From TrEMBL:
Its main location: membrane. Signal peptide: none annotated. This is MFS transporter. It comes from the Bacteria. Keywords: Cell membrane, Membrane, Transmembrane, Transmembrane helix, Transport. It is a multi-pass membrane protein. The keyword Membrane applies.
Length: 411
């Protein structure tokens, strides 16, 4: 098996673990009776994990541990934690196991990215194709739930989201031992706390602007996963065992976007590509707001997700790999993850469950008036934030180069 294929499979399993539970965790917590505040605390676990990863886990992997062994060890432990989450119904136990899982799993995201970059001869050309394996993994993991869940799934059925994630985690733990050996980088000339040097790069205006936009965009991105499943099942009327498959249509578009990412960045440059990525959110949420009565239109709007992820977040990872010195790249990935998986997720986990309880209206129900979420007004919030991101990028983001240093090729 060649290296690119191994990295592709690594990404597929890495994202399958996440994709198994992400779309339904907030509706599942609601079904367990967790309050909006309790759900927000669970959502903040990834923020804690990203912060710990920045200061410890990523440095430990980068400087002291072979990356593939770090992945194997962490995924074995995170699989055990996911089993604990699956069988926990009280908030205290659920939160404890989920926090432990987050602390172990989140650092593997940046480490897997760093391992891929370290073993690709031309990462600006090939990373998008390798990373598309993660998208395919996310798509494939949604299909078992068509059989595991019912149209009106009970909590006992929905706990399968964590059991399937645990199975994928154990599989990746074993597969990681077959990955290319990626030894730790030890050098007395390199700062052992490289995050400090990476943070200093925020003094450069173009880095600071990109981090600010990434923070806002990560709130929008994570808010989508907070709201989407409930929107599809409660407002659009899609069956509970089909909602994850509908959401996976966005990942199909992501695969296509990943395969053209290199040529697009080379032709359009960093800024234009990033602007297209953030505007994808505005387009998707606007369709959600005004076409909720049309299932075909809502399904078609899922394809905007490919633009949102590939043309923004994947480009950000490539940009920092291109712009940061080699010895700081893993720490730079950790900083990005701190925004995307950490602070942004924490804000989204508090903001959107709160808004869903506040932005409501009354409709006629079968047994009298019912209070339901006003999704039209709710979706205007992320749409406005994405337009703000586009304006900041258009007028404030001036990178030192228009595009990658090495022009990607189309084959």
């Amino acid at each position: 098996m060649n290296t690119k294929l191994k990295l592709f499979i690594m990404m597929a399993l890495q994202l399958a673990i996440w994709g198994a539970w992400a779309p339904k965790i907030f509706p599942y917590m609601t079904s367990l009776g967790f309050s909006a505040g309790q759900q927000a605390l669970v959502g903040s676990s990834w923020g804690i994990a990203a912060l710990v990863g920045l200061f410890f886990s990523n440095q430990f992997a980068d400087r002291n541990f072979a990356a593939e062994r770090f992945l194997a060890f962490n995924h074995a432990l995170s699989g055990l934690c996911l089993l604990g989450v699956a069988w926990s119904t009280s908030f205290t136990a659920f939160f404890g196991f989920y926090l432990a899982y987050s602390l172990i799993y989140v650092p593997t995201i940046s480490v897997s990215n760093a391992l891929a970059f370290a073993n690709l001869a031309e990462p600006d050309r090939d990373f998008g194709k390798v990373r598309s394996g993660g998208t395919i993994g996310w798509i494939l993991v949604s299909w078992p739930f068509y059989f595991l869940l019912g149209a009106h799934a009970t909590p006992d059925q929905v706990r399968w989201i964590f059991l399937v994630a645990a199975i994928a985690s154990f599989a990746l733990a074993a597969f990681s031992l077959t990955l290319p050996h990626t030894p730790p980088r030890k050098s007395e000339t390199v700062d052992s706390l490289a995050w400090r040097s990476a943070l200093k790069l925020l003094r450069q205006p173009f880095v600071a602007v990109l981090f600010a936009v990434t923070f806002i965009d990560s709130i929008i991105h994570n808010g989508y996963f907070v709201m989407a499943d409930a929107f599809l099942t409660d407002r659009v009327g899609i069956a509970g065992n089909l909602s994850m498959i509908v959401l996976s249509l966005g990942q199909i578009a992501e695969v296509l976007a990943m395969f053209v990412l290199g040529p697009v960045v080379a032709r359009l440059g960093w800024r234009t590509t990033l602007i297209i990525g953030v505007l994808g959110h505005a387009a998707r949420f606007t369709v959600f707001a005004f076409a909720a009565d049309s299932i075909p239109v809502i399904m078609a709007a899922q394809f905007f997700h490919g633009v949102c992820y590939a043309f923004y977040f994947a480009v950000v990872y490539i940009f920092f790999d291109d712009a940061f010195p080699e010895d700081l790249r893993t720490s730079a990935q950790g900083l990005v993850n701190l925004l995307v998986l950490g602070i942004g997720m924490v804000v989204a986990s508090f903001l959107f469950p709160y808004l869903m309880t506040q932005i409501t209206h009354t409709v006629a129900g079968p047994i009298g008036p019912e209070t339901v979420v006003n999704y039209k007004l709710l979706f205007m919030v992320p749409s406005a934030l994405s337009l703000l991101c586009a304006l900041i990028l258009a007028f404030g983001f001036h990178p030192p180069s228009r595009g990658p240093k090495h022009t990607p090729v189309t084959h």
